[in-house]
Amino acid sequence: MAASQEYMDKMQLRQNYRNLWHTDLMGTIQADTPYCCFAFFCGPCASYLLRKRALYNDMSRYVCCAGYMPCSGRCGESKCPEFCLATERLVLVLDQIIPSPELIN
Predict the structure, then answer these.
(1) Could you name the domain of life of the organism this protein comes from (predicted)?
(2) With contact defined as beta carbons under 8 Å apart, do 58 and 51 qualify?
């Protein structure tokens, strides 16, 4: 019962999100040039940081490949989630273009 109440509280908070962009797509380079350069030269590093941010910096929520692959949850990611996320970002390049489910919900 407590878990369902916690879930309902999270859903209530999400209804208050505005889903507005701070900057339009064409203005992103001007708005944050250093980060755009960082992402251009080190895409996996930027992807790692964005995925971690999508998890609200709570690595206990991390599941390998965002739960989409059969190996998800069986890779020992709960023991060292930072290492697993870094490996995922470096190895699974295609996964970088798939949005995190945390951002979709």
Answers:
(1) Eukaryota
(2) no
